[in-house]
Amino acid sequence: MHVVGTEELKIAGTPVYIDVEGVPDRDFYYLIGLRIGADPAAIQHSLWADAPEDEEEIWHRLIDLVSVVHDPIIIHYVGFETAFLKRMRERYGGPYEESVTGQALTNSINVLSFIFARIYSLRIRMG
Questions:
Q1: Does residue 54 sit within a domain?
Q2: Which own/partner contact pairs does 110-115 have at CB distance under 8 Å and 24+ positions apart?
Q3: What is the average per-residue pLDDT within 38-43?
């Protein structure tokens, strides 16, 4: 394993980790997993939509939860969550762009984009 550079991911605020599950061919998101804060005081939430008509409710519950977090920084892994955040704002609206919650949703951090070009696995063939 080889790591290029020494850049460090600095999170200035309260981390809000999200993981979203959906059914892409139905354009339906059924689960938003949240972990707010850091151990040992982290709080976890699972927001479930049993049917497509419940999707808007879990979106607004996400906004409500993020809106009470002091200086939230949304962190996720891969672009699926980025697409989710954009699509839900278009579909159901969201907080004002200028609000703290609006900025957190707009400026989420995709951890994969941070590490993608920096970590390599090397194979050495002997003989």
A1: yes
A2: 110/76, 110/77, 110/78, 110/79, 110/81, 110/82, 111/9, 111/75, 111/76, 111/77, 112/77, 112/78, 112/79, 114/9
A3: 89
pLDDT tier at 24, thresholds 50, 70, 90: confident
CB 36 within 8 A of CB 67: no
Reply yes or no on whether the pLDDT at 113 is more than 80. Answer: no
The whole-number pLDDT of residue 19 equals: 97
CB 72 within 8 A of CB 106: no
Q: What is the pLDDT of residue 35?
A: 97
Question: End-to-end alpha-carbon separation of the chain, Å?
Answer: 21
Number of folded domains that form the chain: 1
The reply to whether 111 falls in a domain is: yes
What is the spatial distance between Cα 55 and Cα 59, in angstroms, rounded to a whole number?
Answer: 6
CATH number at residue 46: 3.30.420.10
